[in-house]
Structures
1.
Amino acid sequence: MTHGMRTTTHGLHLGGGRRNWRDDAARYALLPLRLFLGITFIYAGLDKLTDSAFLKDSGTGSVGDMMRTVRGSSAIPALVDLALKSPTGFGYAIALGELAVGIGTLIGLLARLAALGGALISLSLWLTVSWASDPYYYGNDLAYLMAWVPLVLAGAPLLSLDARLHARRRQRSGGYR
């Protein structure tokens, strides 16, 4: 006698068949992360570009003052010194980098490259700006770095320009790609 236990599944079968909600959830698992990181980096880039105080060499709220403040506590002071050679240029580079990473991630164009760029931005900010956070988990740049890793590995296989371009190439090559 069975106790109402199901012995069949309705998952994806080798010969085709229906997918269940778990299969769909697995397929779309990275989409919320992609949306969050894409929107956040677009916002961060635009916020920096529209903040007149941030893009200055010195003064309250400037990138120059921020870099001078963190120089003594950063893991790589030489990286801060490099940024201090042209704080305004560094501010623009970070802002435009965040904007490019955010757009690429959000629309899924060169998604792995965009995610790598986001990881590198987060790594550089962790090693400079938030390195002295104590305990370490108070600094958000390390968490952002770790959040980029799955997107570096997986890219944007769904709902992306990368997926559309891949499908187009595959169609042109007769489905052998």
2.
Amino acid sequence: MTGPADTGIPSGSRPAPARVGRWLAIALAIIVLDQLTKIYFNTEFQYGQRVHLLPFFDFTLVYNRGAAFSFLASEEGWQRWLFTGLGCVAAVVITVILRRTHGQPRFCLALTLILGGAIGNVIDRVVYGHVVDFLLFYWNDWQFPAFNLADVGITCGAVLLVLDELLRARKPPRA
């Protein structure tokens, strides 16, 4: 049985571009929100400025030339292009995987969060030469490295990937 206008597509299913489109729209929303917050902090804060909000949380403006936890941040600048390239390759691979796994919403959401975060940080590297970070959690003398909304997307996506795999592993195999 075919769908409306006899497109040859079985009713109840949509072509892959339409299915992947919603995931790409979510990734785009993450990118836009990430970039808007970075523009705000870049224009309203001076580098290193901190605004105290809670006993364990501040807004601050810092730059990261490296990767997570400032990995390779002290290098001469080649890491900018390495991490930009890795982010671009990850975006292409994730998009291809999203097209092939549209029937797994939890898995697709995880990939979408990672995709939006990766592209958000790639934009920073291309435009500024570093990633703009502004969220700072701390306790007494200890502090977690500052991060941004793109990093939140990547981290939540990674956690969701692990959760998805654990839940999938617990399901009995289909006969």
3.
Amino acid sequence: MAGVNRVRLRGQLVENYDELVKKLTRRLGSSDFAYEALHEAFLRLERVTDAVPVRSPSDYIFRTAINIAKDTKKALNHRVSASEVEALLDVCDDEPDPARVVEARSDIDAFKRALAELPARPRRVLLGIGIEGRSAHDVAVSLGVSVRTVESDLKLALSHCANCLDYTLIRRLGGPRPRSY
């Protein structure tokens, strides 16, 4: 007769259903979890074959339900909670978005054009102080001009670049900067 194991297991499940639920509830700590595991065990009984006879149907069902519960708990532990997903979505992305990259490249190209339009000395002054980070005195010595001339060229270069880039040049209050030698 085909399906002897299946018939015996189903019969045992029907006869001892309440007892199996109580036993699983004690073992798992939750009646809801016990019912769920037992239901899943019932569904798995359909896959049982007669290749090897089941000696203790009640123990077989109980062990199957316990294994299902363990697998379910393991799967739940690997899942990310809603609050963890929310935290991951709130991570700040340090990379600029494509629109900002395009805008920055456009500004760089406009700055290069503005630099090219400047006379040679104001361009070298702006590059020396603004890009290379040299002092006004150092740039003045290298160009063979006074610090005052370097400051005047720097003001001219910054004003020209700000106009070309459509930026507002912020003027400092309080007179000239103290000179550093």
4.
Amino acid sequence: MTATTTPVCTSASNAVYPSFSSYVRARGPVLQRTARSLTSNPCDAEDLLQTALTKTYLAWERIEDHRALDGYVRRALVNTRTSQWRKRKVEEFPYEELPEPDAAPSADPAEQQVLRDAMWRAVLRLPVRQRAMVVLRYYEDLTEVQTAELLGVSVGTVKSAVSRALGKLREDPELACAA
């Protein structure tokens, strides 16, 4: 029994559509540049162009206006590239250790709001001068120097007043319950 082999790929000279062969010879370099602009390396561009030309060859009889072939092939290039991009496999690599620690579960937004409300009520119970310094330092995020200049006091006064205010906030019974 003798085995016969069928060629997988035939040369362009044996093509069923000689006009397709002449089109590819004439426009190949331009189409290659277009394919190259859609991919990151020349080998992928060649594969992309071959795929688009195969699709064009299969549709050759259905293409009515052969003057618009460049547009047809460009559209085939873009569509093929988009399909390849969508089908792109995301590679996963196993590791002994996780690269990131598990994030702590986020707190309930309602509980966070309760804590903010309790904090603000505690700040409102501070004496006016201490309240002003705490608000400027921690809510407005000013430096001690900026706070001192704004209130017309020394930096030492800001430091001591804020320290006393923070001590009162730490001892506030409502904040202890809310935390």
